[in-house]
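Many introductory courses stop at the sequence. We go one step further.
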Amino acid sequence: MIRLEGIEKCYSSGAVKTFVLRNINLIFEEGEFMCLMGPSGAGKSTLLHILGMLDTPTDGEYCFEDEPVHKLNERQRTELHKNHIGFVFQQYHLIDELTVYENLEMPLLYKKIKGSERKGLVAEMLDRFNIVAKKDLFPNQLSGGEQQRVGVARALITRPRLILADEPTGKMRHW
């Protein structure tokens, strides 16, 4: 499903290059569950952003279901991400001006899913994550754990082929 060969990510400041990732080689098969562990600053989030097509490597090859991601333009990567990847962000990334319901509905709108199906999928996620009573609240009215549950529900709502999570349980204590 995923193949990384020689992935590198570096930032340049004048003549100085700072490597965040260097020579990463990985293969993920469909159905596998992988966990990246390491100290703060080790590049875990950077690697997740590259896998999620939210960032591009400086060098190397990335194939997602035999599609050479490293050769795609930004629009093509965005389409691939939108159609196949769910991302749970470390800092939630909920849209402050939208209610919980609207935050969950947003990925479905991007995928142009019809109204009745959207309504059913949002209702299913609200129920599954025990946040039905929170559906009309805005993110700033939720606890950190509730915001994270909304973030997880939003990542799962489109039934993606790949789910990437950056510290997905950091704020969750009691579900």
